[in-house]
Design a protein that fits this description.
The protein has helices at 23-45, 51-77, 95-112, 117-124, 128-142, 162-171, 176-182, 190-209, 218-234, 253-270, and strands at 2-5, 12-16, 19-22, 154-157. It is mainly alpha-helical and 275 residues long. The longest helix has 27 residues, at 51-77.
Length: 275
């Protein structure tokens, strides 16, 4: 059994007096910078929108992902603490909430700027996977959203999971020796698996597919389908949120929320769209 320890990285990347810049925030900053870079390159090959329209679209998306991501976290994962919505040090961000927020934001943008909604989503979808991967790297640096206990080939010790590991070991006495030996239990580094699938693999798939002109909605459909499949698979290795646990003793909230993405993605990929 190969057991590693999560690298001890200070979640604060830079401190300037009372100003602290966190790695997680930097990851989102890098993601938006990358989105601007890729988007501007796409503009040179695409007459769908002007540069000023693109900047406005990015602003709409930022607002949508922040509001939707925060609301989604509390509504889907911790509704009892909804009052902490504006306290960013409490709670987290939900991808599915952020996705809904972006969809609403793009819909409003499309109406106000007289753009086709699906063409607009097809334009921005290739910009998304890098941000997903960057966010998961931020989760790994913070030592959060770790995976389930691995009792087969090894895993990684997450210091922040020690209390949860001890409870798990009590219920599984055979693992108590490992707990005391490594001061924790080996877990799947699910953040890195998400970084690989949702960030790198999804970026390659969408980038290659979007190189050719596609019927409207096809690129968005492929993104939803692939993300849904990847997320459902990853959730088998990821520890469900402690305050929520499993739904129906079988599936996680992430899997439940990803199921509609499969159906919508398949619909967009297979329906006959008139250009």
């Amino acid at each position: 059994m190969i057991i590693l320890s999560q690298p001890s990285i200070n979640p604060i990347a830079v401190s300037l007096g009372f100003i602290h810049i966190y790695w997680y925030g930097l990851m989102y900053t890098f993601a938006f910078i990358f989105a601007l870079y890729v988007g501007e390159k796409k503009l040179k090959k695409n007459t769908f929108m002007e540069k000023d329209d693109f900047y406005k679209l990015i602003l709409y998306c930022i607002i949508g992902v922040v509001i939707g991501g925060r609301l989604g976290y509390f509504l889907f994962y911790d509704i009892g603490k909804l009052g902490d919505f504006l306290l960013f040090e409490n709670g987290g961000m939900s991808f599915h909430g952020g996705l809904l927020g972006v969809i609403i934001a793009v819909f409003i943008y499309s109406i106000r700027n007289k753009k086709n909604f699906l063409r607009t989503t097809d334009f921005i979808v290739p910009l998304v996977p890098f941000g997903l991967g960057a966010g998961r790297l931020g989760n790994f640096i913070n030592g959060e959203l770790w995976g389930r206990v691995s009792d087969s080939y090894g895993g990684m010790i997450f210091s922040k999971a020690k209390e949860m590991d001890y409870t798990y070991a009590i219920n599984h006495p055979k693992l108590m020796e490992i707990f005391y030996k490594y001061n924790g239990l080996p877990r799947y580094p699910s953040q890195l698996l998400e970084l690989f699938l949702e960030g790198i693999v999804l970026f390659i798939i969408i980038s290659v597919y979007s190189k050719k002109e596609r019927k409207k909605g096809r690129i968005s459909g492929l993104f939803l389908l692939c993300y849904g499949l990847f997320r459902i698979f990853i959730e088998f290795f990821r520890e469900p949120d402690e305050q929520l646990g499993f739904l129906f003793n079988e599936i996680s909230m992430g899997q439940l929320l990803s199921l509609p993405l499969l159906f919508v993605g398949l619909y967009l990929l297979t329906r006959n769209i008139t250009e």
